[in-house]
Design a protein that fits this description.
Elements (H helix, E strand, L loop, with lengths): L1 H23 L10 H4 L7 H12 L8 H10 L5 H14 L4 H13 L4 H12 L17 H8 L9
Length: about 160
């Protein structure tokens, strides 16, 4: 039964992804790098880790959606459907809000409700991270991956002297 529900989500995703890019990402341009070029970045860089992510999963870059793949790297969220829904919850917790995200969350709860605990945990994780959903990660590709990840996973804290 889960396979049928996941197929339904895949169908909805395939039908809405191009519309999402057209209407929600119309001002955004695609990155100036491809998967092969990312693998040429310095070994410990965000760019190299992203290139390795694409190679490991057999993925290709989707124009204007490259930041989403970086989100997988910095949050540790997987790429199966329940993890993709959890990623949307994490982004909501991080402050992102749009109709596409809310629709994904609604469908995730409706179609895969058995993962609700995981979704709520992801939401809390997003709340406990520095806001990153709005960053242009193309500008950070040369940075040390672990430093970027560690920085974003720390909530802003006030230090008293």
């Amino acid at each position: 039964m889960k396979k049928l529900r996941v197929r339904l989500l895949l169908f909805v995703y395939e039908k809405t992804q191009k519309l999402y890019r057209k209407y929600f990402k119309k001002k955004k341009r695609q990155w100036q790098f491809n998967e092969k070029q990312l693998l040429e970045f310095k070994e410990d860089s965000l760019g190299r880790k992203l290139g390795e992510f694409y190679k490991r999963h057999g993925f290709t870059m989707i124009p204007k959606m490259e930041n989403h793949d970086v989100h997988h790297l910095i949050t540790g969220c997987g790429t199966n459907f329940e993890d993709e829904i959890a990623m949307q919850f994490l982004l909501l917790g991080n402050g992102k809000m749009n109709a596409h995200l809310l629709a994904a969350i609604f469908l995730g709860i409706l179609i895969l409700p058995e993962y609700l605990k995981m979704y709520l945990k992801a939401f809390k994780k997003g709340q406990n991270m520095r806001p990153f959903y709005h960053l242009n990660f193309e500008e950070l590709l040369w940075q040390n991956f672990e430093h970027v990840k560690d920085f974003l996973q720390q909530k802003n804290t006030i230090t008293h002297f």
